[in-house]
Amino acid sequence: MSRKEQAASIKKRLNTVSKNIKVSHVELADLLYSVHSNEFYIDWGFETFEVFIAESDLGLSMRQAYYLVQIYGKAISLEISKKELEQLHISKLKYIFALDTGVYGSFIKSAVVEAKYLTLNELVLYINGHTKGNLKMPSVYFSVSTKQRDTIEKAVRLAKDEYGCTTKGSALSEICQFYCASNT
Questions:
Q1: What are the pLDDT digits (tens) for 49-60?
Q2: 65 and 19 together in one domain
């Protein structure tokens, strides 16, 4: 199959998957990861992945798209199967894969297995219990204006709500991870 045919096939499948609410979020993550990593969006006339997401009919925010790409990319790097991912709700996957694979790779693999038997709240406690004992929490200080502080605090509040973060630090980390993922 030529690159053009492969890109056309991926685009067709991507549109079908995103519109069918009964189709697994993991399949959508797989397709978006393929689009992102192979830069198929260029074949479709888009300069960047971001422009593709913004102008497509997928109905995804940039943050949602990057979450899915990040989850699937980390799962691939840890050799976690698509079948294992499909057993978990997206909210559990988001929480598990927010962890750094370099530091918590083996823990992430075990958390994927354990998450099947846990509620989201239990999973959060399980992960927090594991990471708190092993993380050194450095402090970071910034000098910002009042307006900048207000913007930062609003973003942190929104991130805490959306990602289910329990601390300002974890919410800020989520914001930074999203920014870094969207600029790689």
A1: 999 999 998 888
A2: yes
